[in-house]
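QA checklist item 7 of 12: single-chain prediction sanity check.
[x] sequence parsed
[x] length recorded as 268
[x] structure emitted
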Amino acid sequence: MRPGEQLRELRNRLGVTTREVEEFSRTIAEDRLNEEFYISNAWLTQLENKNSIPSIYKLYSLSVIYRTKFNDLLTVFGIDLSATSRYQLALPLQNTHLTSFEPPDPEKPITFPVRFDKSFSLETTSLISRMVEVWGEVPIALIQKLDVRHCQYGYVGMEDFTMYPLLRPGSFVQIDSHASRMQQASSWRTEFDRPIYFVELRDGYACSWCEIRGSQLTLIPHPLSGCTIRQFTYPSEAEIVGQVTGVAMRLIPPDAGPDETPRLPRRS
């Protein structure tokens, strides 16, 4: 339906006449000392019957009178505030700055793990999808963007120091499963440019730099990690899940004080 038709349906559902909308909006305009909030009977009739776009003031009055969220009325006219964060991330600014994202509707349900697999261990690196036993719909706005059923997410085990200090144990990583082909060494210059891959092994998972030579896959740890290089037959013993594209990581371990650092494994 056209926006005007949707607004007329909202009004009819409440049993409100255009004259009543006019009277209610006059009250709002007088209280706000701004005539822009006022909606005349003729103007509302035109809005419902033609492709007109109201001002933010009149749209606010309609949201109050129709008992509808202002954001929902914006959606009627093609403005989706939930896409704000996506556009801000896609259109980065050059200078460092503070930013704020439009909070998602907390009433909208999202998919979230309500029960984890009992065999899951915090000490080992694993895929999030393998950790969850039961999914449920829960209205938690802060993790509305987390789409674990359709995206790949990994967990770096608490005893996995392979990429420390670049990736701390206990980090969650986002994995692009479409980028499972190894990049050439010439395509990166620093350790921050060097791609990190999430790898499925016969007895678990690994998250590290990788090299493939023939049928040999080499897992290369960070030089400061104290971990050793591991080699596997590719792809029979190791398969690349995808490239790590994002990370959620604590800068200070939960059980460590401000002067404490994680315990590194001994060099062998």
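[x] summary fact logged: Helices lie at 3-14, 18-32, 41-49, 56-65, 70-76, 84-90, 128-131.
[ ] second reviewer sign-off
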